[in-house]
Structures are given as C-alpha cells and as structure tokens.
Amino acid sequence: MQGSAGLMWIYRGYVVAFFLYLVAPLVAAGVFAFNDSMFPSLPWNGFTWDWFFSPSEPKLGLFHDGRLLQGLGNSLYIGVIVAALSVAVGTCNAFLFVRKEFRFKNALYVLMVVPLVIPGVILGISILVLASTIAGLADQWFGVFLTSLRPGIPLVVMGQFSFLVTITSLVIIARLEKFDISLEEAALNLGASRYRTLSTVTLPFLFPAMFSAFVVAFLVSFENFNTTLFLVGSDSPLTITMYDRMVKAGSTPVLNATSVVLMLGSGLLALLSIFAQRPKRA
Amino acid sequence: MYDLSCTDLTKTFGTFTAVSDVSLDIPSGSFFSILGPSGCGKTTLMRMIAGFERPTSGDIAIKGESVLKLPPNKRNVKMVFQHLALFPMMTVGENIAYGLRCRKEPKSEIAGKVARVLDRVGLPGNEDKKIDQLSGGQKQRIAIARCMVLEPDVLLLDEPLGALDLKLREHMKIELKQLQHQFETTFLYITHDQSEALVMSDNVAVMNTGRFEQIGAPKTLYDAPASGFVAGFVGDATVLEGKLGEVRGNQGRVILEGGKEVIGTVSDGSKSGDAVEVFLRPEALKLGEGESGCQLGGKVESLLFNGASSRILVQTGRNLIEVADPEQRSDVGEGSAVTVSWTPDRARIFARRPGSGAAA
Amino acid sequence: MSRDAGRLSLILLFTPFALWILLLIILPQIGIGYVSIREKVGINTYEYGFKNYFDFITEPVYRNTLLRTAWMSILVTALALVIGFPIAWYIAKIARERSRAALFLMCLIPLWVSDLVRAYGWIVLLRETGVISMTLVKWGIISQPIEMLYNDMTVIIGLVYTVILFMIVPLVSTLQGMDDALLEAGYNLGGSRVTVFRRIIVPYAMPGIVAGCIITFMLTAGSYLTPILLGGKNSSWFTEQIYNQFITRYNWESGSAFGVSLLVFTSFVVWAGLRLTGQSLATTVAKE
User: Fold this and answer.
1) Residue-wise over B244-268: b if at least 16 C-beta within 10 A, else e?
2) What is the DSSP pairing of strand B337-341 with strand B238-248?
3) How far apart are CA B78 and CA B239, in angstroms?
4) DSSP secondary structure of A205-268
5) Which residues pair with B57 in a beta bridge?
6) Interface touch A282/B132, C-beta < 8 Å
7) A46-75 residues touching C, CB cutoff 8 A
8) Which residues of A fall within a CB distance of 8 Å from C263?
9) Residue from the list A95, A125, A130 with its beta carbon closest to the beta carbon of C242
10) What structural domains and CATH numbers belong to chain A?
11) Nearest neighbour of A129 by CB, restricted to C25, C31, C90
C-alpha cells in the first residue's frame, strides 16, 4: 500500500503500543509472584520462589495451600468432564448438521448457535432455577432428595456444558465440512463396513478438530466464572476460590503465583491444540 | 458371459430423470468408456454400479449375477474416484492394504500382495511414503493399485485424469491403457473428454441427457456417428444449418441459410423439408475445387498454427469453416479467396439438435 | 444404506442435540420467565403477575443500572472496534507471512488466560500502591500515590482489554479473505483512501465487524468480574444486581425478572444490529 514512511511508523508504533497494553497486566500479574514481599507491589525486594513452594505461613506457597490446591483439583476435574461431554455431543451435532437432512434444519442450527449469545450469568441463574425447581418438586411430590440438582459440581458441569457444546460443535462442524465424502465411499468400495469406515477414515480425519475442541472447552471451563458463580456449592473451582480470596482476604503474591501457573498451563495447552490443528508435513 | 451388464437401468431423483433406460454389456477384459458432457448422468450410472445409488428400475449384474441386493462394501467392483480419495492419514502401503485388511486376510500375505502390486504399477518399495509426497501421476497409480490388489471383476474409473495437467494427462492415457492390458481386468471409464475415450477404449458409449446415443468402437463413432449429438461431441466438426431439400438414395441436398446448397449423406431418418445440420470434419475438407454441390467459396479469415493440427478458418457467408492444414500450406494468406470442397460421403446430415439454433 | 438405518442414525444423532437444547437452554429460560412473573406471598403460596417487572421499572436504581450497563457496553464495543480494526488490518494485510502468525498468536494469548488473572493484573498495575502509581512517584511526576482503580475510566479500559480479542479475531479472518486486488482495483478506478475504505473495505469486512460487535457486546453486558474488581462496590453493573438478588437477598423472583430483562435487552441489541447490517446469526457468529 502506498503511504508516507512517517505515517507507517506511527502505525507501527500504535501496533506496538497495543501489544504492550495486551501483555502489561499479564506481566504485572506474573512478575510479582517472584517478589520477596507480602504484597504484590513495588518496591522490588528481591527474587523468591516462596510463593510457590514455601511450606509455612506467613508466605504459604501455592503448592502447600490446601484450599487453592483443592480448587485447582476441582477445576481440573470439572474441566475434563465438561470437555469430554461437550466434545462427544459436539461430534454428534457435527454429523447431524453436516450429514443429515431434516425439517427446520436452519432454524435448529440457529438455535444451536444461540447459547453463545446468552450472557453467562443468565445461563447460570436459569439452570439454577430449573434445577432447584425440579429438585423442589421431587422433594414435594415423591419425597426424593436430589442432591445432584442442588448447587455443586454436577450443576457447574451442566452450566458450562450448556454453552461449551456450541463452541465444540462449531469447531468440529468446520472440520467435517472439509471432509471429502468420497473418502468414505472409497472405504466402503474397498469392502469396509460402516463402522470400520467411521473408525479408520472419518474419525481419524476429525481427530485434530476434536482434540482442539477438547482443549478449548477445557480452558474455557477452567476459566469460567460468570456461569459457575451461581451454580457452585461447597466444592468451588479455582477461579471462585481465587475470587473469594481476592475479595475477602485481599491479595497476596500467592495469587500471582497461581496466575503464573495458570498462564503457563493454558499457554501450553493452547500451543498443543494449535500444533494438533496444523496439517502435518513430512 | 459379460463381466458387467446393465439392463434397462433407470434412476430418477424426484421429477428429474438422471439415467433413463440404459443397457450395456461389457465383455471380459475390455476397456469400456462412457463419454458424455457433465450432467449427462454418467456419474449416477457409475455410482449405481458401485452401489452408492439405488436404481429406480432395471438390473445390474456382475459376472451374470444381479448385485442389486448387495451393499457397496460387498460388491466386487472397485472404483478409482475423481479426486482419487486416497486416505491422507495413511501411508501408501496402508492405503493399498486397506481392502485386504477389511477382508481379514492374514497379515503375512498382505505385505507380499502390497509389494507385488506396487511393483506392477511401477512404484516398488514406496510402501512407507506419505500420500502428499507423491506426484499426481504416482497418486493415480496408487489409486489403481489400491483397487487392483483386490482383484475386482470390474474397475470403475470416474474421470480420474481430470485433476491432472495437460502433459501428464496425455502421458497417463497411454499408461492407463497399458495397465489395463497388464491386469487384464475389465475397465469401465467415464469421462467428458472425447480424446481420452477414443484413445483408450475398446468400446465407447456416448451418453446424453440420461440416454445412450450410440455404443461402438471409437473409429465407428468417429466415422459413422449415429446422431448429430455424437457427430458434434466426438471429434471436431464444422456445423452448417439448413433445410433438407431433395433426397436421392442416402444423398441429400441441403439449402443453407443464405441460399447456398450443399450435398451430403443423410445419416439418420431426416426427411425432405426437415431442419438439419451438416457436419464437416476438418480433415475431410480440402482447399480447391470439388464436385458440384460439394464445395463452398469463401475467404481465409485466419490461420491457426498448431503443429500437425494446424487449421485454416474460412469465412463463407455466415459460417466459419475449419479446414485441417497438417502441412501448413504457405500459398494461402489471410484474406485470400479460396474454395473448400469435400466428398459427399464425408458430409453427414443429421436432424437439427434441440437447443442449437440461430445463434450458432 | 437402507432407509431404516438412515432414520435410526438420524434419531441417534438428534437425541443428544434435542436433550441439550431442551433441558439446558430452552427449559431453563422458560423457567426464569416463569419465576419472574411469580410473587411470593407466603410459604409455598404465590401470586402471578408482572409486579417484579413493575418494581424494576419504577425503582430508579435498577433502571439506571441497566441503562448504565447498556451505554457502557455500547461504548466499550465501539472502542474495541475502533482500537481493534487497525490492529486486525495490520495483522491481516501489512504484516509479513511469518510475523502475521506470531502476531495473531500474541493476540490470542490473553484469551487463554482467565478473566480473573487479567483483572488481577490490572489491579496490580493500577491501584494506589500499584506499579504505575509508585513508579510515577519515584520519578517525581506526582508527589504522592494516586488511586487509579474504582472509576469508570478504569472499568472501560479493563473491559476493552477483556473483550478486544473477540473483536480482532473475526476481523482478521474476514480481512484475510479479502483479495488485495479489490483494493488495487478501487484505487485504480480513482477512489480516494476514504472512498476505498468506505465502499470496499467496510462492506467486505461487515460480517466480521458484526460478529465481533455481537460477541463483544454480549461479553461486556454479561461480564461480572471486570466491573466488580476494577470498579469496586459502586460499579453498579447490572450483573451485580442479579447476583445480589439471587445470592445475597435470595430473592429469586426479582432476580429472574432482572435476568429476563437483561436477556431481552441484549437479544434486542443483537437483533437490531443484525437487522441494521443485514446479516444473520448463522453467517456471522457461527463462522469462526
């Protein structure tokens, strides 16, 4: 494009400034995990690993902080379940919308996308209300006490699942649409059964997308706050635990340490999913 | 006995008839082509034979036995797909072994069979290559090997050369023919490219709007087409439109638009007074005087140089006539006045095809 | 394949979809709609009517919170578009092949980091004892530490930060699909920069712009953490009201009414946006 060199430099400067804006809070959150101080702020008192590994108060390190570790465990547990469920249902949806013809397909497709534009808070309260109503009715009519419908991990899983399916479906649909149907016909023509065709040709082709969808679903579940907030019981996931700590106890660098671990973890997963999506070159 | 027979095969999609009342018999070991423009129903016909579509009526028999009840994975016809459909997540060896594994052949035999078939297609030792490491021509051969290793009764090929560039396509034509000889298997080849069909086939069926117009050896189709469609689709021809006048024996006089009259051979049941077309092959025409009625005067419009298939374009009245010029004559130049002539048996008269009209 | 098998597989594939949409999306929405028109008058006795909504409209605090959330969300969306578009353009059209991928990845990094961590980062930077304030004091630019948290400006900075990636990503993918020849043709035919931008670039990028704006707006209007943490207790964000009604006051009836109002309001904005730009939900949001 034409344009004076000066303008171009201003443009470049703007881009650089933007990326500084992007990384500044992350760097700030990260760096102070290593500051040997009781507060995540200046002055810099020297480098320390205490906020990760110190076994005792006052600088109780992340890896000895029972509540944070418990939250981390809950988050991993919820994330894996939710991601697995949403990939499974997302795969079914992909086959449904790419391969099948049925009435109202377009309207149902829009319905499939809709959860993405419902605010997370509303998904949270609506599922809470419905679950509690059902639990209440079960209690009232049959005298059954359905604990799984009271706030807790099962409800959190349902809440996150409700909108993650849309994301996984879209990811897998995009890949399935690129699938050349003649590959399946070739497999059938060579004598494979339908099941064998699915497991040796179609699913291997879809696998990178399923893996990415799993990673994305896991990360979004791990980070989710808005929906989870309303559905959480006593076993709170890490984001809720951190939030409580931040609001009630005030921030200490152990939260920075947790942030560092989260950033590293999700960065690693994100890279993994990108490599899985990338076409392999020999 | 025929390797493949279709009897009165019809396929309709809703109100649209894709294949209408098609019958064919392919003798064992021959190379049979179905030639037709896109949308003529040839792909549907092939998909019915492979079992991906169910015929509305009619029967398909392989080695004399009806296969209508068999699902695609139980039919012993193998198919080379238009874009080959090699499995990208498998190696060459795995691709070829796929069908053998589906048949649950013992592992020890599979490796040997794969190696032998790779040898036969001229790519020995390539088992561990990835599909995307192969060139276009190599992929082609692997796709054929993947089918041939299963020793099918019939090999179906769905325009497999379409994706290749021109040079490679010319080369693969010859190679396919050689492979067919080597494997001695019946090939059913579908294409819209007349030169592919003519070069490779023992027999060709010309298909148009769901029907076979003519089945015959390539030379028959070229020299004695049965309809205007075949005459126009197979080989090059200049078409002159007119009205059939007097008919004597099989010779007819055609009054062209513009009043000139020419003589040719009436090749279908056209009657005096019908709207007809006269087909003239470029190589049946020469510059110079001919018998009366078998010539048209004109002016050289342009010279098209193309080596042995060079052409001279002659403008006569409204028509532009293509004359073959294999020797690239130097005595004519653009604008020279010439006469184009022919012998009456090489000017073929057919009823005017629907859809071709004043615009031509 | 026989027709029966096709029918069976259709049913098998349709079941999970139907269960999901029905049990987790449609029924819950009907549920809060139902609860929102209910009013508790005694133990297990209810009356039905629009009193909750009436209360909501007549109580200025609630009404103003919704309006404020709406205005700020629209402002944040507009800012994200204005700030994000040049960045998306740079990534899609100016950066070289290699740095393009790297820049795009860098854009995505904050996406992989929790909202909470991002907001926390801003707190560390901006609060009275934060990095910026202390540095400015040290350099002698200000005489004593200043509190930069808990004002609208900070909330907007934080919100733009949280959502701008969702603006940039669809923009980049749309702009990457644009053939440079279109621009060259535009200039070649005598267009000025402004006309080329207005007549060629913007219409071409419209699906991306709409998608980005919808997602950005939804995320902003529905956000909770950023306004609360950066805006403090007085951020008056609407989601906070919902939380208060539901969790603090345990008044589900009016909380549901609030929820329905937010949903109706955001859906209306999305619908109006799609209408005005002539796009559809399936072609914009679902395209990523």
Assistant:
1) beebeeebbbbebeeebebbbbbbe
2) unpaired
3) 40
4) HHHHHHHHHHHHHHHHHHH--HHHHHH--SS--HHHHHHHIIIII---HHHHHHHHHHHHHHHH
5) B10
6) yes
7) none
8) 118-119, 122
9) A125
10) 68-250 (1.10.3720.10)
11) C31
Where do we find the tokens 């149902």? A108
Model-level pTM greater than 0.90?
no
Residue B359 inside a domain? The answer is: no
**Interface touch B79/A185, C-beta < 8 Å:** yes
| CA distance, residue C166 to nearest chain A CA (Å) | 12
Nearest CA in chain B to A183: B85
* One pLDDT digit (tens) per residue for chain C, 288 residues: 456 777 888 899 999 999 999 998 899 999 888 888 888 777 777 778 888 888 888 888 888 888 888 889 999 999 999 999 988 888 888 877 778 877 877 777 777 777 788 888 888 888 877 777 777 877 877 777 777 778 788 888 888 988 888 888 888 888 888 777 777 787 777 777 777 777 778 888 888 888 888 888 888 888 888 888 888 776 778 888 888 888 888 888 888 888 898 888 888 888 888 888 777 776 655 544
- Parent domain of B252: 236-351
Asked casually if ipTM beats, i.e. exceeds, 0.90, the reply is no
Distance from CA of C6 to the nearest CA of A (A): 9
d(CA C287, CA A177): 12
A182 contacts chain B (CB < 8 A) = yes
Q: Which residue has the tokens 């088992």?
A: B127
Tell me if A205 and B89 make a contact (CB, 8 A cut-off). yes
List the single residue in C113, C122, C225 with the smallest CB-CB distance to A266: C113
Question: Are residues B88 and B18 part of one domain?
Answer: yes
Number of domains, chain B: 2
